[in-house]
Amino acid sequence: MSGLILKLSPKERVLINGAVIENGDRRSRLAIVTPDANILRLRDAIHPEDAKTPVRRVCYAVQLVLSGDSDKVEARQQLLRSIEELSQVFVDADSRKHLDIASHALVHDDHYKCLKALRALLPREERLLAASH
Asked: Where does residue 2 rank: exposed (0-12), middle (13-18), buried (19+ CB within 10 A)?
């Protein structure tokens, strides 16, 4: 994960290796040069009580790997199974593309890219759940 650049808004918080860091009053950029640092933007974080839908649960599980609260090797198989289960519901080409990106990123230990691809499915999941009620 060397070379990651974080652009932070004023007062934005980020979790880095278990420590919550809050930016000051101005926008700033941080260059993270330590490989495999555990980093999670708190504004993007899904809280445990909000992980109630299938996509949110998978995103939360990836988030636990990013925060360092879950071992990436142990989590990989379960995450791949969960992504496969999602592919049974999200059958359109664009959703499949995001799921393929997520799977590929997971296999290559790029959890940020995996989470980004899965988060793209959140609005679709909301629409599907709204339509079913």
From this structure: exposed
